[in-house]
Amino acid sequence: MPDVIIKNNRFYNPVDYILQQIGGTWKAPVLWRLRIKTFRYSELEKDIPHISQKMLTKTLRELEADGLVDKKTFAKVPPHTEYSLTSKGKQVVVLIESIRNLGLELMKKEGIDYLAMIKEEKKNERKK
Question: What range does the domain containing 103 cover?
């Protein structure tokens, strides 16, 4: 297979290309949340456990550069920024959903009911 260079990055095949755009720890969780609605930066930061401001900023910049996320800045008082999926981002979320469903299925075969764990965690948060 021929190597392809896009934006000074070398890709060995189409799978490598898309995985480099959505790979890493934080890109899929950000895209997954944006499938529901437009988020402000602070909302994403609160909604994604364990992500640092530095990593969220870096991730959003990379997703925007790859054309998966749209950033709108509002110059009002106080100023704020909103992030939403582009049409390309919406296509990628379909792939992420398939990968997620396979992950859930494989986890269940290992005896881990991840969805039940999430429900339990939310229940415990409400009690606090």
Answer: 4-127
From CA 59, how far away is CA 61, in angstroms rounded?
Answer: 5
Q: pLDDT tens-digit profile of 77-87?
A: 888 899 999 99
Say if CB 71 and CB 64 are below 8 A apart: yes
The pTM assigned to this predicted structure is 0.84
User: Which pLDDT does position 14 carry in this prediction?
Assistant: 85
pLDDT digits (tens, 9 = 90+) for 86-107: 999 999 999 999 999 999 999 9
Q: Are 3 and 10 in contact (CB under 8 A)?
A: yes
Residue 53 sits in a domain whose CATH number is 1.10.10.10
Count of domains for the chain = 1
